User: Fold P2X purinoceptor from Notothenia coriiceps.
Amino acid sequence: MMWGCVTDFFTYETTKSVVVKSWSVGIINRVVQLVIISYFVGWVFIHEKAYQVTENSVESSVMTKVKGFGYQNNYVMDVADYVIPQQGAAIFCILTKVIITENQFQGTCPEYSKKYSCVKDEDCAQHIGDILSNGVITGVCLNSTIENKTGRCESEGWCPAENDHVEVKPMLDVINFTIFIKNSVRFPLFDVTRGNFLSTMSRDEIMKCNYHPVDSPFCPIFSVGDILNYTNQDLETLANKGGEIGINIQWKCNLDYDIENCVPRYSFTRLDKPFEKNAISNGYNFRFAKYYMTENGTEFRTLHKAYAIRFDVMVTGKAGKFDTIPTLINLVAAFTSVGLGTVLCDIILLNCLKGAEQYKAKKFEEVSDAQIEASLAHSPVSQLSLKGGIKSSYDSGAISLATSDQAM
Assistant:
């Protein structure tokens, strides 16, 4: 037993070429090889550019400016009024509707919502600690002058309490606003820096252009109305409830060509679309306040509940350049994969065609030292006897085997 394991360990296997003259097997072999070669040439090398070293991490800077005028609450609104933040960041909001609660002072007052209706103090005890109120619920029921003098729970905080159910017309002039985007990117692996202004565009051309995916695809000025059209949004609904729009700048650069061909591509999407029809939290709104001081030093404020279209400018990038190492790796993978045709044909020959046993006998042969010595002693010149029907190939170490194309 032990000696058998030792002899099995010290054995050597070498390939043996068998030339099979079969039309069906030959066609299958060439078709499989053609498919594999087409895959590597068409998909791996041409489409995926596997001969390049690539970089997906991009260093990016975005600056924005909004232009336009609109009417809100009978006031003319300019950029300083409706853009938050004003610094021109990659994420900014355009206010489309604002509900204002003026002259709020610190103190106690009745809540406005019917949720806090009460007849006696015990009715307000259940609301103590409620975080959805306009202040800290004290547990006292007040006879409010709102809605037929029905009682409301008292809250301590900024008074009077906010009423955010006031009907306010949205600023539909937002459709005429424009957004100017200045974007620069850098691919650190290749030390390449690019900007979204074409070098061929003059200052006058940039100031007068308006982005269009076909007519003016590299213009950095975008109409808000066009962006809403690209994302299939209803202006009045979006201005009333607010929402979030994504502006994606994609850089896909093949650095084997002229650097001027490294240009951005723009796309637009509604980022909060999954919540568009959500009854609990649809749209986009937030609150902010402006603080003032009376003559006697008492602080008061004006509260704003703002509905806005939030714009997120997102930058993605990928750059590639020819490199020897990935080219060699993928060439080796391609040449190795071509051998899959041989594996498939072997399976067919060994299992599906008549003469499979003959093929097995010629493909797999075991030779021992004793057989070699006996063969040399019997015929020192010839080491291989060929049976009838088997012809020697012109290739060294190969034999030719004729098989039938009929399946078993």
Notes: Residues 113-159 form one domain. The chain has eleven helices and 19 strands. The longest helix spans residues 23-47. The chain has three domains: 13-50+324-402, 55-98+168-322, 113-159.
